[in-house]
Write a structure and sequence with these properties.
With 475 residues, this protein is mainly α. It contains 19 helices and 4 strands.
């Protein structure tokens, strides 16, 4: 009997079939992945399983994304070892996670031996999540004395890409082992990825991350998210090794102690955030409160349901208003009370005193301009004396003079004013040199309009009043 050849008809549309997704992807990677990145992965996986091609522009349009967002998604999955991209051939290869995690090419299970200086290894092609760039090497994280090593200076050979990969893997294994040692449990896949990203994505030195594990263990906190946050914060503060971390902690030990006392007084049981520290630093550095004054304000939160730093800040602001003023919204991260971009609040008394101060200052400046003009402008002294007599006569006419007399007086004063301007101009002075000058012509630096309403200049004057009062108190 002749053999029968069997076949399935060609697919007409891949959308009518199914796409197989590994359970490892669902369990290990999907929970932490951004939603749009999952869309790209699954959509690409569908085309890859049926060996179909698709243009990135069409993929982006279909998924409702920008093309650069699709490219970022592929970078994300490539960094996690789920795909391999070849930009020259414009291909993307999906890697089986079963083989990657549990087969011969798994990243963490197999030991990685660093290449020696005498016999550099060739790149084995082993899949991992690390960049090929050189990474600073710290084998002995706990060593305190490196003087014997420094004594023997040898020429440094630049490590190859394969060596750097192996060294990074070695450092990570030490970090994972340390985490398991202090936490007393086996590290999970998600936790290894978190610690790996702390080094590869955020640029934290392995030595700093290693020290962060011990630091957080002392706080009885074994969350890798927390450890990563601490290490990244140290990196942002310029720490590149354990010694620089220790120096930073010692430098801020007194302030950290104050933070802890404040949080304890309020009843908080968490680590301070940058926003928390910014608020508390302002109390000490800008507003000049002592720790005891701050703790007194914290104790006032004992009777409220949900105490907060904002509540304490309000109490201290009120104290500052009693003293004369407070900067309520200074530039972010500023330690200077006079930094621009903030909004000041002052008491009514301080604002009223400041308006009086600027009026008095202008009175002094106006009198000085009159004295200068009388001395340097010929005929000005006599003219000003005549103007003074006219002003006195004008006051008497306002209560008992006729309309005709008042009109004549206005004409005389107008002619005299024109004569003053000519004399000033002849000597090179501005025509309005002898006029009073106001910062606000609406309220004439009184704070109130002719209708009795608060003038719009009060906000700007409040900021000036704050700085004026601050300087006055310093003196």
């Amino acid at each position: 009997m002749a053999k029968t050849r069997l076949r399935i008809a060609d697919r007409s549309d891949i959308f009518l079939y199914m796409t197989r997704v590994e359970n490892l992807f669902i369990n290990e990677f999907l929970p932490d992945a951004p939603g749009d990145y999952v869309k790209v992965y699954l959509f690409g996986l569908m085309y890859a399983q049926y060996e179909e091609e698709i243009d990135s522009v069409i993929m982006a349009r279909t998924l409702g994304m920008d093309e650069f967002e699709v490219d970022e998604a592929w970078e994300y999955w490539e960094a996690r070892g789920l795909v391999k991209r070849n930009k020259e051939t414009r291909t993307i290869e999906f890697i089986r996670m079963v083989e990657r995690l549990y087969g011969k090419n798994r990243t963490y299970a197999q030991p990685v031996i660093p290449a020696t200086a005498e016999e550099p290894e060739e790149d084995s092609g082993m899949e991992d999540n690390f960049d090929d760039e050189a990474v600073d090497i710290y084998y002995d994280f706990d060593s305190q004395d490196n003087s014997s090593q420094e004594a023997e200076e040898k020429p440094v050979r630049k490590a190859s890409a394969a060596e750097n990969k192996a060294l990074v893997n070695e450092q990570l294994r030490m970090i994972f082992a340390r985490f398991q040692e202090v936490s007393g449990r086996t590290i999970s896949r998600r936790e290894t990825e978190k610690l790996t990203d702390t080094i590869n994505v955020y640029g934290v030195k392995p030595e700093v991350l290693y020290y962060a594990i011990d630091y957080c263990a002392d706080l009885d906190n074994y969350s890798t998210d927390y450890i990563s946050t601490v290490a990244i914060r140290w990196k942002e503060d310029g720490c590149e090794d354990r010694e620089s971390v220790k120096a930073l902690l010692e430098k801020h030990s007194e302030r950290n102690k104050a933070y802890r006392e404040i949080f304890r007084a309020i009843g908080f049981n968490r680590l301070t955030t940058p926003a928390d520290r910014e608020i508390m630093d302002r109390w000490f550095d800008e507003q000049g409160f002592s720790l005891e004054e701050v703790l007194e304000a914290c104790r006032a939160t004992g009777g409220i349901r949900e105490p907060s730093l904002r509540y304490v800040n309000k109490i201290l602001e009120n104290k500052m208003l009693e003293k004369g003023g407070v900067k309520t919204a200074g530039a972010a991260g500023s330690r200077d009370a006079g930094s621009s971009g903030g909004e000041a609040r002052v008491s009514r008394k301080v604002l009223r005193d400041y308006y009086e101060y600027i009026r008095n200052e202008e009175e002094k400046a106006h009198a000085e301009r009159i004295r200068e003009a009388s001395d340097k402008v010929p005929g000005m002294a006599e003219l000003l004396e005549k103007e003074s007599r006219l002003n006195t006569a004008a006051l008497s006419l306002m209560t008992g003079g006729s309309a005709e007399k008042r009109r004549e007086m206005r004409e005389k004063r107008k002619r005299l004013s024109e004569t003053k301007k000519k004399l000033l101009a002849a000597e090179g002075y501005p025509e309005d040199y002898l006029e009073k000058r106001y910062r606000c012509n609406i309220c004439r630096d009184s704070g109130y309009t002719d209708e009795g309403t608060v003038c719009s200049c009060c906000r700007a004057r409040a900021d000036e009043a704050y700085m004026w009062n601050l300087e006055k108190n310093r003196d």
